[in-house]
Amino acid sequence: MQRDEWEALYRNAVPRVYRGLLATLRDPALAEDALHEAFIEGLRNPPARNENLPGWLFRVGLRKARRQRWPFSSLSGRDRRAAADEIAGMLERLEAGRLLALLTERQRALVVAHYYLGLTYAETATLFGVRPGTVSATVAQALARMRKGASHA
């Protein structure tokens, strides 16, 4: 993929992929850093196929975020609370955000990839290195947890 194609992808995919990462990671700064790191990775080592690049960026962004979490643990408690309060406030305003908050990070990632990014179970399984049945079961468990949370609201 050429540099100008990456620029076009960046302009088109950033809002969707960022929102997906934000919903999964629940930290605006971490989601933004992960998104930028994913694009940098794509420029350095482009994916083998150009299919579903937003999904590829989402998965790479999640990997980058997990690797970056430890350095962020050095933030002061006040800074950490401020970031957490900011995202918590935004997610609480949205019912979907409230329900996503009930899920584990893995469940959130798979639900966001499938429903928000529009990936099939097979595409999601490929991106996460699991079997489609695992994606199906995890999404089903996540939806059951969300339904239960919605009925208790």
* Mass-distribution shape: globular
Backbone structural class: mainly alpha
The total count of helices amounts to: 8
Termini gap: 47 Å
Spell the H/E element sequence. HHHHHHHH
Q: List how many beta strands DSSP finds.
A: 0
Helix content: over 70%
Could you give the topology of this structure?
Layout: H1 3-25, H2 28-44, H3 53-72, H4 77-92, H5 95-100, H6 105-116, H7 121-128, H8 132-151
Helix pairs in contact: 1-2, 1-3, 1-6, 2-3, 6-8, 7-8
Question: What attributes does this structure have?
Answer:
153 residues; single chain; mainly alpha; 8 helices
Please give a structural write-up.
The chain has 153 residues and is an all-alpha fold. The chain is built from eight helices and no strands. It is globular, with a radius of gyration of 16 Å. The N and C termini lie far apart (47 Å).
In short:
By secondary structure, this protein is mostly helical. 80% of the residues lie in helices and 0% in strands.
